[in-house]
Specification:
With 627 residues, the protein is of the alpha/beta class. The chain has three domains: 72-229, Substrate Binding Domain Of Dnak, Chain:A, Domain 2 (Up-down Bundle), CATH 1.20.1270.30; 241-395, 3-Layer(aba) Sandwich (Rossmann fold), CATH 3.40.50.2030; 409-624, 3-Layer(aba) Sandwich (Rossmann fold). It is built from 25 helices and 18 strands. The radius of gyration is 24 Å and the shape is globular. It starts with a strand and ends with a helix.
Length: 627
Amino acid sequence: MTEYNGCVTCKSADKVLEKFIAQLPMETSHQRVESQKLKCGFGLQGVCCRLCANGPCRITPNSPRGVCGATSDVMVVRNFLRAVAAGSGCYIHVVENVARHLKNTAQAKGPLKGLQTLDRLCEMIGIAGADSYEKAIKVADAVLADLYKPDFEKMQLVQKLAYAPRYQTWQKLGILPGGAKSEVFKGVVKTSTNLSSDPVDMLVDCLRLGISTGLYGLLLTNLLNDVLLGEPKIRMAPVGLRVIDPEYINIMITGHQHVLFAHLQEQLVQPEIVKLANAAGAKGFRLVGCTCVGQELQLRGVHYTGLFEGHAGNNYASEAILATGAIDVVLSEFNCTLPGIEPICDTLNIKQICIDNVAKKANAEMKQFSFEEKARISTEIINETIEAYKTRRPKTTLNLLKEHGNDNTLTGVSEVTLKEFLGGNWSPLIDLIVSGQIKGVAAVVGCSNLTAGGYDVLTVELTKELIAKDIIVLTAGCSSGGIENCGLMTPQAAELAGPKLKAICQKLGIPPVLNFGPCLAIGRLETVAVELAKALNIDLPQLPLVLSAPQWLEEQALADGAFGLALGLPLHLGLPPFITGSKVAVKVLTEDMKQLTGGQVIINADAKESANILEQIIMDKRKALKI
């Protein structure tokens, strides 16, 4: 913990933000984490069950079974499967909304901005059409049909989307998923009172949920978004609280569903709407990126240069962003929107609007998005935003932080733009890996949290340790927000890399950490891994590639992790999921998984030790490949 002027906050990798938060006159999560530092030992181990009125039951040496007879293995894995199912459900909700939006847009003959991606999708899943609209409708229908299948009917697109050697492994293990929504439903049912008591069987279900999460909630969501919103382009962009311009009416966006406010976004730059902002005393409107949807806009920022100010920060920067006083409205549509922003919004008279009822905030106005009513909803939001600006700005003292972040973070990296940067094929990267100039690839992904050393501490320190070992880092998720605000995605960060990686970065003018964007972009990283494996004619577990979610936070991260294990990748976590009370769960995930899928879970909260472990795994894989 760190103390400024008598205020105690958690430590942070982002020292500029740490000092700013400690001096704020309102409480944030960075202070509350101190009062919550004493954790329930039963909860940490996962050996607490409250499914029925005989409980809550807790496992101890003197009470090795719950009232019903459930063992620690049953309790732990039941809780774990339920969490993975919930996380998967969140991602499936997002891809369902995107697929419906694509279909509605195509039926209305609306704008489709990523026709190259649409053609790529059609080729992947074997769809033809007379024009782009027919193709888009057929793609959306194919995705939705798979989502809605019962759990006993296998989804048809899995074989078309998956890497063939992986598909064969999944088929052999019997973990090919049924309908994605049904798999979530089954996970909830299976973990109810006095149903499944086989921990291994439930862990198998976690892998099945991981596959449907990864291929649909991650991979397909990215591609469908590219069709609707435009394809990423590599560019330099500003990040951090410095992006907030008080001369504009500022809307902070949070969540994961960019398509839900795409129409609003288009309206905000129309001349007649800008005139309304001018009449209120502002230069116009600006969107301020926060959480994963901010990373989503940053990824495609080249398409929104007249509106998108930049990505200010991740989930645990959101309270600080609001505390600047320059945000007039919070527009939220999914998770990572902290309840802790609500009292700050009340204090600073910031209006909150939610456009997806799964993410209704306590003090927010609900405006459920509807494709058919999007024009009316956008108009209402614009009018209410202007009124909020006029009401609050004259009596609000601004507390800006212009020294936070940087102006030259490399963004817009995707599986397509990276390949284009390399000259249209993966040979240059493969040659660098084979020659040893780059030892391997580490995907540092997932959430941000305030534990494991403090706010983004382990994430940033691990990233520094990895690049110093000549291991290139690819990122996706809220972790990207912390890493970029600490400057590791600027070309100057090459100075922190090992001598070989540093030389490559300086020659190419790139940072040693490449930002793929939101947590959804874990699906893009999977595509990169698959294409590298194809080029080398090997399976994914053979790649000199490791996966780390050093500061995972949410149930969605557990579903991501299940996907990583199904892919056969080594998965490092800074903190264990709540499974340590089960010897079966620990053994299966850390040892037995290597023989099943090729993956394994590695738990270590020390940056140097973790980097050494991951480096050794990469070196072992290089040795096996004789490179």
